[in-house]
Amino acid sequence: MSTTWLPCGVYHQDYIHDQGWWQTRFIKTKMILLFAILFIVIPEFADAYSLSVCNQIGYTILGALGVQLLIGFCGQITLGHAAFLAVGAYTSTLLILDFPWPKFMMDLGIAYPVSILIAAFVAGFWSVLFGLPSARVKGFYLILTTMAAQFITVNFLITGYVSQIGGRGQAFSLPPGTIKVGPWIIDSDIKVYFMMLVLVIGCVIIVANLIRSRVGRAWIAIRDNDISAEVMGINVVKYKFSAFFVAGFIGGIAGAFWISNLAAISPEHFPWFWSLWLVGVILIGGVGSIHGTIFGSIFMVVVMEALQLFVMQFVDTSWGEKLFTDFLFLKEAAFGLAICVFMIFEPKGIAYRWWQMKNYFNLWPFSY
Amino acid sequence: MELFIMTITTGIMVGGIYALVALGWVLIYKCSGVLNLAMGEMTLIGAYVSLSFYAMGIPFLLALLFSLIIGLILGILTERIFLDKLIGEPVLTVIMVTVGLSFFFKGTVELIWGTDTRVFSPPVFSIEPIHFGNIVIGRVYLWSFVAAMILLVIFVCFFKYTRWGLAMQATADDEMAALSLGVSARFVYAAAWAIAFMASGVGGTLLGNINGLNISVGYLGLLVLPAVVLGGLNSVPGAIVGGIAIGILQNLCGAYLDKYFAGGVKEVAPFVFMAIFLLFKPHGLWGWERIERV
Questions:
Q1: Do A339 and B99 touch (CB under 8 A)?
Q2: pLDDT of amino acid A1
């Protein structure tokens, strides 16, 4: 059975088409247009500021994708995802800075991509480690153990030990030119942007395909009712761990990607606030939907940037100046309020509205 | 040995404050089933309000009373505006609303009062320590403990002997039965939030007296989570025991383990302990084990 809505007169002759992502010509055109905008129009016409906003959106999508997988598809609520981003970022940085890479790998520029991959695996296993209690506890208690993951990893291990490696003090600075992918040295927003696009699209494809496979169906069954899932013969513990692994894996990619945009990384880049921010993003976007992750990321980043621009208008007045210097706090308050308002008035998130709109236009203008 | 006894006593005294805040948390959970992650910020608000009143030259006890009144109003408002509409929603929704609230409160507090550490000046309690034999205890700790205990007793008496307290107990026990007997659940929810706000406000004020007041007091409010997990989510005595236990644990780790690790043990230890404890006893010491049916 096809999962997409098919217009009148479109039939599939074989299973391959039935399982295809782009089943109608309209969808194909739409997606090619989207890719054209992403790959050609935005890099061509956007200025540095908009590109940096895009990069931030991409980073948020990558981070939130893992959270979406855990919360939205497997039902395991996590409030410590920034820890896995931090693990990814630090693994990748340490590998780049301290690992004796063979000369040819440096020359070919595959050191950084390889370090991203290793970072992803390390973060994945780290995530499974903190997912271990999920075999025994669930709901609120699991939330507490994931919170413990955040405090143990970032506030204790990374601040106290990992940051001290090499005697660099609190922040690891990445000298320019060390981050190199193939022949390109990632040193400008536009290059980060392309890297972000590739990673985001890759991860979205991975997750989208996973959740429509056997693994994903098992996750969804666990989310809907874990006891029934177990009765149906799903190995609940195994699939919970695999969900934690994939979530941590993508988190590791996100963290390792983000170091290309930062001149220096320090534990302050991965506060508890960021974990909650990611959960907020998927709640606003819509739980249990990949569209939701993307919409939520765009919404949150754009709204916060707009808020900043708005406050900047009043920087001359005394209260405006105070708000501008304390913008971080204003951002926190606005974020909190946004979550509350969305949860109360729009609990299904932006993705639900998108879905409604799509359904409406599927049959538009004649609804029969 | 002296160090050991002193650490334990200080732990018990600080733990008394945690117990007070944890009591507020358990109350909200028991009455309305809301898992509240905004407790830390509620302690912050109460503490800053009483500090502001105290800075105006109002006597400390009166300032505390005013902060209690403001806590009452804020608690009722919070419940009515945000939580009232969420009865029966999934756990994640409710939790994230409290997370949203915590950010909202925190951002507001930072916008109004800034992030610099503030102290109660002139100091409320004299810094001259009290000697019990060989053991030396700061006056602040002792008085905080006494105040926390007095309030705990008042709260417990309130539940046991007043009409409103009985209504709250009834709702916590069985909401349907309570409703059919004419107890207003909405009133009970509002009362639970108001009491939690007041309790955490007092807790925050006392904590602010110990080390000065800044945003990190909100983190101390987060420590109630290990405390309530230890005691079991829906057990009032459990919250008190858990709070004191976490206070002791924290001080012991601070005194004995700090020199072996690179700092931050005091902050992380309760959470590590909690994560391990959950693996062995997922329902805490006295929490109800819920049997799930499909």
A1: yes
A2: 39
Q: Is residue B188 part of a domain?
A: yes
Q: What pLDDT score does A132 carry?
A: 85
The SS3 call for residue A159 is helix
**Contact assessment for residue A154 and residue A271, using Cβ atoms and an 8 Å cutoff:** yes
Is residue A179 a part of any domain in this protein?
yes
**Which tops the pLDDT comparison, A154 or A59?**
A59
Q: Give the residue, A345 or B32, on which the prediction is more confident.
A: A345
Task: Collect all residues with Cβ–Cβ distance below 8 Å to B192 and sequence separation of at least 6.
Answer: B27, B28, B30, B31, B32, B79, B168
Considering CB atoms only, which of A156, A228, A276 is closest to B268?
A: A156
Domain that holds residue A222: 47-354
Contact A344 B265 (CB under 8 A): no
* Amino acid at site A210: L
| Residue span of the structural domain in which B200 resides | 2-280
pLDDT of amino acid A2: 47
What does the block give as tokens for A241? Answer: 């761990």
Average pLDDT per block of 10 residues along chain B, 294 residues long: 82 86 85 83 88 86 89 90 79 83 88 81 74 76 84 84 86 82 86 88 85 79 82 82 89 81 75 82 75 68
- C-alpha distances in Å from residue B67, one per residue of A363, B78, B101, B222: 59, 16, 19, 20
Structural domain contains residue A31? no
Q: Tell me if B96 and A161 make a contact (CB, 8 A cut-off).
A: no
CATH number at residue B165: 1.10.3470
A255: closest CA of chain B, how far (Å): 23
Reported ipTM: 0.82
Give a yes or no: residue A1 inside a domain.
no
Predicted model pTM = 0.87
Query: Does any domain span residue B260?
Result: yes
- Residue B291 falls within a domain, yes or no? no
Q: Domain for residue A2, yes or no?
A: no
Per-residue model confidence (pLDDT) at position A216: 92
Which of B99, B253, B258 is the best mutation test for A, with the most CBs of A within 10 A?
A: B99
Rounded to whole angstroms, how far apart are CA atoms A220 and B205? 46
Report the CATH number that the domain containing residue A151 is assigned in CATH.
Answer: 1.10.3470
